[in-house]
């Protein structure tokens, strides 16, 4: 099926990133004109991304709101099941799909459109298998929570809710790749509309199942399942029924070629996000050891939910930056990549790493800041100083996020960036001051020969693209 594209798009063994022989000539444009053009391109992605992310996350708000009207135990159970159990796996799968961001974005920029469909199918396979491997998190929720010292009532109820959230778990394996597949070919409006309809479905089914049919907290979980699978179906119908003729040519056996390299890049991406995402889930579990554990878990869960809800806006800028960098990098427009990162400096330089395929490096930063510095400080403030939930929350801000700022600022100051061939940048965002140091200026025209420290990541991407050999 994919063989028909051989002559049209060239040999699949060619480099993913286009040769930079065609360089952008921006000499005739002043800075304000270029800034205006780049901002329009950015907002073409960011606007719908803000809407879709807020709408999707609002489903969690609706679920917790309905559970909160039942009882404290029901709210605590849906909080642990959805925020901790689902959150653990959500972070892993969302991180793993960043491999698709790197590959689809650069392939679209290089006009190798048929490869997007193959990468999409590879991502489905890898994420679906990962869902099976992480099923024990859901099946053994009750005994694990009891082993960790949670109350019997909350553990039993959380285990029941977790089982009913297994369909939601599998929906991530298809929804995340479909969303990235469409986003990186600038099909953003459909994602926003499907998210809006999914939110409406969630509100309606939650009311029906919780209040009309009196299914309680299980009904809230089922409503979440239905709404997410509704979004999967909507995006798949749009993708496969003729609206993406260049990038979706049907199912192909080429999706099974080079899976191992794709898995390695996906795992590196997953670890990058998981180390940060899991950190917040661990905090919620730690709260269960405080006095009045049920109330404490409820309080921290609400705070975390509000924080994550607010984070949907900067995360949309992350998406926009990733799309711009990957598309221009794939097209070989080095000057455009450099200018895009400058324009997005205050928004989301974290996504420059994803667009360039440097996921593994970020994982080391998150590991040190969140787990070596952040967690001990939270234990100190929460239990030793007896500050309870406020201590845990304060330790998170002063430890994990603020420590990240200090460490990365020192790294930036002390590093000889001219020698490295890159210039470091620091961004502000997140809960308080969440900082990630990522390169924002290098010789993008020579990105096929990446700066020291990124060679393994770049060669992995090249292996993925080169092993797809249509015969």
Automatic annotation (TrEMBL):
GO molecular function annotation: antiporter activity; xenobiotic transmembrane transporter activity
Record-linked Pfam families: MatE
Places the protein is found: Membrane
Keywords noted in UniProt: Membrane, Transmembrane, Transmembrane helix
Origin: domain of life: Eukaryota
Main location: membrane
InterPro entries, sorted: MATE_euk, MATE_fam
Any one of the GO CC terms: membrane
TM helices/strands, residue ranges: 80-103, 124-141, 161-178, 190-209, 259-280, 361-385, 392-410, 422-442
Membrane topology: Multi-pass membrane protein
Alphabetized PANTHER family for the sequence: MULTIDRUG RESISTANCE PROTEIN
Family named by the database record: Belongs to the multi antimicrobial extrusion (MATE) (TC 2.A.66.1) family.
UniProt name for this protein: Protein DETOXIFICATION
């Amino acid at each position: 099926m994919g063989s028909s594209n051989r002559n049209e798009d060239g040999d699949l063994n060619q480099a993913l990133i286009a040769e930079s022989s065609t360089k952008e000539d921006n000499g005739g444009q002043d800075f304000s004109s270029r800034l205006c053009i780049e901002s329009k391109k950015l907002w073409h992605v960011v606007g719908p991304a803000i809407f879709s992310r807020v709408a999707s996350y609002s489903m969690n708000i609706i679920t917790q709101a309905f559970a909160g009207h039942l009882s404290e135990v029901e709210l605590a159970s849906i909080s642990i099941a959805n925020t901790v159990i689902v959150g653990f796996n959500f972070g892993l799968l969302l991180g793993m799909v960043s491999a698709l961001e790197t590959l689809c974005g650069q392939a679209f920029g290089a006009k190798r459109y048929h490869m997007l469909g193959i990468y999409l199918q590879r991502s489905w396979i890898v994420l679906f298998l990962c869902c099976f491997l992480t099923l024990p998190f859901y099946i053994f929720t009750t005994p694990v929570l009891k082993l960790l010292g949670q109350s019997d009532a909350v553990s039993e109820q959380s285990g029941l809710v977790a089982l009913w959230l297994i369909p939601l778990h599998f929906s991530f394996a298809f929804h995340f790749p479909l969303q990235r597949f469409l986003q990186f070919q600038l099909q953003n409006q459909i994602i926003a509309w499907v998210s809006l309809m999914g939110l409406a479905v969630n509100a309606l089914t939650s009311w029906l199942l919780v209040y009309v049919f009196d299914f309680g907290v299980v009904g809230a979980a089922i409503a979440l399942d239905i709404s997410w699978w509704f979004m999967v179906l909507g995006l798949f119908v749009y993708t496969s029924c003729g609206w993406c003729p260049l990038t979706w040519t049907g199912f192909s056996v080429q999706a099974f070629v080079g899976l191992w390299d794709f898995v390695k890049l996906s795992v590196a991406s997953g670890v990058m996000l998981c180390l940060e995402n899991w950190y917040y889930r661990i905090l919620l579990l730690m709260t269960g050891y405080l006095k009045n554990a049920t109330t404490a878990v409820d309080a921290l869960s609400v705070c975390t939910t509000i924080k994550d809800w607010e984070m949907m806006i900067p995360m949309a800028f992350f998406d926009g930056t990733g799309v711009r960098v990957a598309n221009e990098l794939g097209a070989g427009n080095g000057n455009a990549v450099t200018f895009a990162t400058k324009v997005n400096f205050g928004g989301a330089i974290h996504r420059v790493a994803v667009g360039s395929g440097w996921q593994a490096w970020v994982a080391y930063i998150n590991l040190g800041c969140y787990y070596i510095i952040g967690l001990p400080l939270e234990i100190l403030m929460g239990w030793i100083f007896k500050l309870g939930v406020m201590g845990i929350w304060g330790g998170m801000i002063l430890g994990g996020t603020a420590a990240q700022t200090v460490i990365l600022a020192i790294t930036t100051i002390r590093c000889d960036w001219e020698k490295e061939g890159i210039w470091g940048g620091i961004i502000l965002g997140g809960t308080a001051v969440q900082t990630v140091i990522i390169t924002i200026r290098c010789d993008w025209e020579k990105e096929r020969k990446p700066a020291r420290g990124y060679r393994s990541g770049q060669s992995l991407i090249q292996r993925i693209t080169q092993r797809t050999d249509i015969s």
